[in-house]
Amino acid sequence: MVARRTAKVKVIPLGGLNEIGKNMMAFEYKDDIIVVDCGMSFPEDDMLGIDIVIPDITYLIKNKDKVRGIVLTHGHEDHIGALPYVLKRLNVPIYGTKLTLGLVENKLKEHKLVSSVQTNIVKPGDTIKLGNYKVEFMKTSHSIADAVCLAIHTPVGVIVHTGDFKIDFTPIDGEPIDFHRLAELGKKGVLLLLADSTNVERPGYTMSERTVGVTFENIFRNATQRIIVATFASNVHRVQQIFDAAHKFNRKVSVSGRSMVNVVNVAMELGYLKVANDILIDINDINKYPDHEIVVITTGSQGEPMSALSRMASSEHRKLEIHPGDLVILSATPIPGNEKTVARVVNQLFEKGANVIYEALADVHVSGHACQEELKMMHALTKPKFFIPVHGEYRHLRQHGKLAESLGMPKENIFTIETGQVVEISKDHARVAGSVPAGKILVDGLGVGDVGNIVLRDRKHLSEDGLMVVVVTITKENGHVVSGPDIISRGFVYVRESEVLMEEARKVVKNALQVCESNGIREWAVLKSSIKDSLRGFLYEKTKRSPMILPIIMEV
Predict the structure, then answer these.
(1) β-strands 127-130, 133-139 pairing
(2) Of 156, 187, 130, which Cα lies nearest the Cα of 430?
(3) For the chain, what is the mean pLDDT?
(4) Average pLDDT, stretch 549-556?
(5) What is the pLDDT of residues 465-504, one digit of tens each?
(6) Phi/psi at 447 (nearest 5 deg)?
(7) 247 given a catalytic annotation
(8) What are phi and psi of 477, to 5 degrees?
(9) Catalytic residue selected from 142, 237, 365, 369
(10) Which is the catalytic residue, given 196, 244, 326, 444?
């Protein structure tokens, strides 16, 4: 009994705290670690050239013999996007619902990992055993089908992880969140709650997904032109409602955008998307029908430069041209940081003569995350002893902590922590107990983690100030300049229009090398820094700019 009392579970966030996306949480008890979710996030503005950002899994690699598996709450990119990269270094079994694993399989195929990774389908109500843990899956509502929240039964007590959730009393699939089981767990005693904080700043309730369906029907009823709807590919319930409205008003539906095509195919195959016969047509065939009989579902609701909608807006889409009078519906809210790109696409669409409906004009989008009253309900149902707010920036986590306090939870039982900080929990106590390596791993093309701060700093420097390459040939014997210096400028000044400046720059470099020669200096490092220093000072004085200077010295 004493041993059980001193037993501790470590809660180790590897992503998803103080940020939106990159969700990953590890739980460690003795020799067993389980991981919940494995997401990616999009690069920040200063991460030039970076494709995606994934969590640092150094701690898991170090303890790879303890890792029993990765459990997935749902199929959004910020919860499954890092899997192919992580599984290459940490091949452990994956557990998730049917649609979630269907979307994961697409990723595994792309990375040629299907045959080497063990995936296990679970359904709400199932419980699996992973080492010392029993993980129970419960139905929840979110903006993707087949989402679950977790009850992790540990030797110390029950931990409830909500995943991303909202409380929708009238969900599209007819199955609301499992209130009964959550209340049952709360009655028995929940040791720790980890809950989604994304919408904690919004009072009230999140509207039901069905309200969007009503709006679609009203819009489709009155539309006389072609309808183009941009939404998140993963929002299968939203896509279902578009198909339903199209069917009701005798329109054919075509799908555009790689991720949308993938998700629609997977969802239809697995039975999550029910499409009436003959309604779905190939995008190559849309010109065979009059405009008032067509609906196009597309990606690009976030204004992503390479997405199908952005390409339509800038007349670069190979198969679809925006016609004057087309009705474009943006069925999504811009993710923070994407507002400018979305506004640009909306402006381009208006310029092409399209009519655009976005969230400010009609209820064409509802969030998939719980607002304050729903969060209060989750706390009231589970009655946790300790609480860690997750999934959100620091302000979201703090506000969620305050919300828990307003419901009567003692301040010392609420842990607003950062990615990498470890919380140690026993039956009666919880404390922050150090930290583990955690952070951002940058993915650029095929390179994972080979671009770091120094490379990003150089890219920023190049993008802001340009580059000057100085090529000079010297003799091996005495360091005398035999040819050059030749100067190549990229992104700094246009050489043909700045011949005087270039000539003066050559003289500056030549003088610096003559000083080195007369002082008997032969070391390349010294010669290079002498060229850099003299040229940097000269260029700043003349132009108030500081390009990157790259000296190339050849010996003959």
Answers:
(1) antiparallel
(2) 156
(3) 89
(4) 80
(5) 788 888 888 777 766 767 778 888 887 777 677 778 888 8
(6) -85, 125
(7) no
(8) -65, -60
(9) 369
(10) 196
